[in-house]
Every structure is written in C-alpha cells, then in structure tokens.
UniProtKB/TrEMBL annotation:
Gene3D superfamilies: 3.40.50.360. This is NADPH-dependent FMN reductase-like domain-containing protein. It holds the Pfam family FMN_red. Residues 7-142 form the NADPH-dependent FMN reductase-like domain. It comes from Adhaeribacter aerolatus. InterPro entries: Flavoprotein-like_sf, FMN_Rdtase-like_dom, NAD(P)H-dep_reductase. One of its GO terms (cellular component) is cytosol.
Length: 187
C-alpha cells in the first residue's frame, strides 16, 4: 500500500533569501519527503498591512491565497527568527490576516524559532498560535538559539542534538495530524 504523504505548508518568518529559517525548512522538506509533502509558502511579503476594513468578501488576492493554502494543508510548520525580542513584522502581519477566520482552529502546527537568542519570539509565537486555536503537539515546539552555528550554509545540520530535536518535532506534528479530530459537516 502506498504511503499518503501529508501536505504541509511551511512558512518562514524571514524574508532573507537563504536565511537560516529557510534552510531549516528546506532541510525538513528533503529529509522527510517520504512522509511529508512540505511546500514552502514564500509569499507572505506580498500580503498588505493588516487592515480589518479590507477583511471583507472582496479580500486582496494575496490574502485569499494565503488563507486557502493554510486551510488546504494537513499541517503547518512556522520557522522564524527573532527581531528586536519579538516576531518579525511580516510574520505577525500574515497571522493577523487569519484572526477573523477559523483556519488555524484545530490545525496541527509545529513551531520553530531559530535565531541568535529567540526566547521572546518563541513565547510570542506560542501565545499567538494558541490564541488562534492551533493544535500544537507536546513536542512540536522548538527553540534553536545560536542557530547559525547549528545549520550550515549548505542546509545541513552538523549539530546532532538539533537534528534529533527536529526529528522529534516532525514526529510530534505527524502524531497531531494523525490524531486530528474529524471535521463535522453539520448541514
């Protein structure tokens, strides 16, 4: 019997090309390609500044496409740096475009903060995703401090502990997807 790969949307909070966060997501896409179809959603910079007045039936196309990508996925991986003790504005903006929806409600999500320090962004990301109703597995949260020393520019992870932690994170995400309660279609 063929393995059905789970569709995962991966969002990097960094706009820098070849950022540590993008390299981490590419690493995950390559190393878990047998069980996961990880697609990097790299268009959050195209989202307009969040404005509740624009959150109507005539949504900006970029917002509609972002929401549709999140909704269609079996799970989400967010990997972000920390900027000035918080989340990058572009990632927070993207998440704000989902507050009037339920697309993260019950959605299996894994969270990675990979930065120099990262504690404040880690706390903020967990708070925001819990507020949005995401299902975050027990081991689907990871803080990688000193990230530049743990992943190289070729996208390899020479740090054995970090590689094991990423494996634990992916296994937790897969378990959360597997245990996802069915969607009730109440007509």
């Amino acid at each position: 019997m063929a393995i059905i790969r789970k569709k995962i949307i991966a969002v990097s909070g960094s706009l820098r090309s070849n950022s540590v966060n993008e390299l981490l997501l590419s690493y995950l896409a390559e190393h878990y390609q047998e069980s996961l179809d990880i697609q990097l959603y790299n268009r959050i910079a195209e989202l307009p500044h969040f404005n509740p007045d624009l959150d109507t039936e005539n949504l900006p196309v970029s917002v509609r496409e972002f929401r549709e990508a999140i909704e269609a996925a079996d799970g989400i991986i967010i990997c972000t740096p920390e900027y000035v003790f918080s989340l990058p504005g572009v990632l927070k903006n993207a998440l704000e475009w989902t507050v009037s929806t339920t697309i993260f409600s019950g959605k299996p999500v894994a969270l990675i903060v990979a930065s120099g320090q990262g504690e404040k962004a880690y706390e903020a990301l967990i708070l925001i995703m819990n507020t949005l109703g995401a299902r975050i597995g027990e081991h689907a949260k990871l803080l990688i401090s000193g990230a530049r020393s743990k992943i190289n520019r070729q996208g390899n992870i020479p740090d054995e502990f970090t590689a094991k932690e990423l494996d634990t994170l992916i296994q937790s995400l897969l378990e959360t997807i597997k245990d996802k309660p069915p969607v009730l279609n109440l007509v």
